[in-house]
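User: Show me sequence and structure for the first protein, then do the same for the second.

Assistant: Starting with the first protein.
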Amino acid sequence: MNHARVATECPKCGGKEFGKGKHSGYAAMYPSRMSFGSDVEYIICTKCGFIIESYVTKPEKFKGTL
């Protein structure tokens, strides 16, 4: 996934090291009841655990849902 901004420092603690994680099990974002969803991934500060950003891995599934 291409991101326009890349965090270089945690806004909560000033940490500079990050990790990537995702929900497991049934924790997915769904556009409607009739569709399969998308995993939600996170960029996390490894010093304090603050979630820097979150995003769905398959954003195309949400086109036309408004």
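Switching to the second protein now.
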Amino acid sequence: MSDAPPLKIGPLEVELPVVLAPMAGVTNAPFRRLCRRFGAGLYVSEMISARALCEGNKKTDLLAGFAPDEQPRSLQLAGVDPVYVGEAVRRLVDQDRVDHLDLNFGCPVRKVTRHGGGGALPYKRRLFAAVVEAAVSAAGAVPVTVKMRVGVDDEHVTYLEAGRIAEDLGAAAVALHGRTVAQLYSGEADWSTIARLKETVHSIPVLGNGDIWEAADALAMMEQTGCDGVVIGRGCLGRPWLFGQLAAAFGGQPLPDAPTTAEVASIMTEHAELLVDWFGPYKGIREFRKHTAWYLKGYPVGGEIRGRLGRVESLDELAGLLDGLPAVALPPENTRVARGHTRGPQVVALPDGWLDDPYDDALASPEGDSAASGG
């Protein structure tokens, strides 16, 4: 049982110590709205390129958008150039577009790390500090947080020093995924690293991320590590109701049961309609396709209908397919079935010579501030 205090991030007070992890192609405004309906928390946008924002990229502006009733407006930025990052933050704050900013230092994707971005960047201590300082300085009263991984690999661990740097430079919180970039999503997250970060960083909240598949995992992580809140990533893919279960767990209330397929179908319809309203009929329904497998993960539903849902062309077709779902409950043994990426380990793609000297910043590539967002 739990009765967790609110999560305080600078001037923000979040009712529950729960944060939706930024996930490319997933945590757009429609998905965030759906998750908020189930429970309180801080719901962060997918990763947005600082350079793309500065250059007025139209796709990026849409991805960086918030529904009129969305509060707080939480956006994650990525970039390797302090100038671009500072300017992007300044524009967002001056235009009153955000209430919270998160900096991405954890992305393990090859197209990001090979230019020195994401999870590769904290290895370069001075560059990491310059990016954090630029964001914090430009943000004013808007809190800036840092999300990172344990390190590039087991031989190049960075999280404790990065946590201290972020704290000293005025970050409002730090979040740690208990895996290295090399692990990608393989194996198990090492929650002991979250505990060590909590012992190292004293004046700001420490948030834990990794392998929270059900509400009990969130309570266990906080108990075992002493962290101040949890970050939910792959565990909520196709399961926005997890936030309702988390709200019950943190409030010391009985957990709602997992929905039946009939209830899942209703949530799927709502999600698809929100995507169509936001992106338009063509793009919206195609954005929804990848979610169909996640929603039905663990349910005894036949392969034919799964395949047809993955190729759905319209809301009308979706309605017809969902009408054909068998009425079944989620088997209890499938509650913790992993969803989303399970790839790894990997050889980390890095700029040539990146690991030779942690204080040589000249190797960071401008391509790391690509005008493309959502990686």
